[in-house]
Structure to design on (68 residues):
C-alpha cells in the first residue's frame, strides 16, 4: 500500500510511508485521476473495504503497466 502511494506520487517509498500508510481508497482515487480513469466512488469503497488486498494488487499492477 505504501509503495503504491509513493509510486503514484513519483517518489521513493520511505519508512514514514510504512508507518503512516494512507487509506487505499484515496490512493485509488489518485490513480484514477493520474491515468484518466472514470471516477467510481461506490466501486472503490466496495473494493477497498472488504477486499483491500485485491485493491492493492490491482493498483500495483496498473502502476507497473503505466510506467513502462
Amino acid at each position: 500500500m505504501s509503495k503504491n502511494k509513493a509510486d503514484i506520487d513519483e517518489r521513493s517509498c520511505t519508512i514514514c510511508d510504512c508507518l503512516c500508510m494512507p487509506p487505499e481508497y484515496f490512493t485509488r482515487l489518485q490513480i484514477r485521476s493520474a491515468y484518466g480513469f472514470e471516477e467510481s466512488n461506490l466501486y472503490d469503497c466496495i473494493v477497498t473495504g472488504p477486499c483491500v488486498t485485491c485493491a492493492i494488487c490491482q493498483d500495483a499492477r496498473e502502476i507497473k503497466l503505466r510506467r513502462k
